[in-house]
User: What shape does this take?
Amino acid sequence: MQRHIFNCSKGCPVESTLQIISGKWKSVILYHLIKDEVCRFSELQKKMPHCSRRMLSLQLNELETDKIIEKKIYPVIPPKTEYRLTSFGKTLIPVIIEMEKWGQMYNHINS
Assistant: This one.
């Protein structure tokens, strides 16, 4: 997917951020990579049971294309693939952590 740099109103930097982390699962993937540092595909599947294998793969590929995460494939059988945040991806840590805090507050208020 082609990404755009928005050069318009004040909301555009938010729009730029959202085009990278939007999608139902990208922020969740990033959250798990922040908490665990490295995750294998199968570990992410277990942590996100409502995300299909195909969707997880698609979201990981988009995050990798955007240079937010990096993938390491080990030449073993069965194949072992690990994902971790890139240096650039680590700049999203404060954003995701604030989302975690807000979500905890929301869950507490509505429980």
About this structure: The chain has six helices and three strands. The radius of gyration is 15 Å.
